[in-house]
Amino acid sequence: MTPERKQKLSRVLSSRQFDLTVVLENVFDPHNISAVMRTCDAVGIQDIFILNTRIPRHPKFGPRSSSGAAKWLTVHQFEDTEACFKAVRSRYSRVYTTHLADDAVSLYDMNLTESVALVFGNEHTGVSDEIRAIADGNFLIPQMGIISSLNISVACAVSLYEAFRQKNLAGHYNRSDLHGELKQQLLQEWSVKPRGCPF
Fold first, then answer.
1. Residues 125-132: contacts with CB under 8 Å, at least 24 apart
2. pLDDT at 55 > cutoff 70
3. Which range has the worst mean pLDDT, 15-24, 33-42, 54-63, 77-86?
4. Does position 133 have pLDDT exceeding 90, yes or no?
5. Which of 119, 157, 122, 113 has its CA nearest to residue 136?
6. What is the crossing angle of helices 152-169 and 30-43, to 10°?
7. What's the pLDDT band for 196 if we cut at 50, 70, 90?
8. pTM greater than the 0.85 cutoff
9. Backbone phi, then psi, for 71, in 5-degree steps?
10. In angstroms, rounded to a whole number, what is the distance separating the alpha carbons of residues 10 and 148?
11. Can you say whether residue 196 is alpha, beta or left, with left for phi > 0 and alpha for psi between -120 and 50 degrees?
12. For 163, which DSSP code?
């Protein structure tokens, strides 16, 4: 591995936010998932959870994926809701769903500097009742138009960049001393140049 490549990988890993994640529930379109993954990588999220209880597992995003941003992320796929959220709860303190409910709060009133998992539902029905029942709350993205919803990848991008803004102001992207052992493990995995890698 060249010094330039190692320097870039180390810089990216130093900004990874291991206390923020995204859960995608039964998202049908792999292009939407790919777009979400690109945003996750862009804001420094390492882990993403994909729950498929109504559709087959997405083979494109397996553990050895070479697909776009997926090759730089740790992708956890589940077919069982209970198992998925047991894993999520073991690592993140709060779980919030995107849902237009009476108790929903604005995205911009949330504290996204805490340990958080943000859940986004599928393109047609949104987050299921089952998952809303076990979440800590609902949030919405304020909108002024006639259409009251955004494409899932757009909604995720808006939400994650608000998290990025809050965490950046709080200095979370300068905490390079955290998760040192995990970062070294990822650096070793990333050191094997994936096919199609531009550097």
1. 126/98, 126/99, 127/25, 127/97, 127/98, 127/99, 128/25, 128/26, 130/81, 131/25, 131/81, 131/85, 131/97, 132/97, 132/99, 132/101
2. yes
3. 54-63
4. yes
5. 119
6. 10
7. low
8. yes
9. -70, -15
10. 41
11. left
12. H
Assigned superfamily of 17-178: SPOUT methyltransferase, trefoil knot domain (3.40.1280.10)
Report pLDDT for 144: 87
With residue 96 as reference, give the H or E element that holds it: strand 94-98
Residue holding tokens 């809701």?
81
Length of the chain: 199
pLDDT digit string, tens, across residues 18-35: 999 999 999 989 999 999
Alpha helix ranges (H) inside 2-151:
3-14, 30-43, 81-89, 129-134
Query: Does 194 have pLDDT greater than 60?
Result: no
Q: How far apart are CA 179 and CA 192, in angstroms?
A: 21
Long-range own/partner contacts, residues 142-148 (CB < 8 A, 24 or more apart): 142/106, 142/107, 142/108, 148/100
* Residue 93: DSSP 8-state: S
| CB count in 10 Å sphere of residue 164 | 20
pLDDT surpassing 50 at residue 66: no
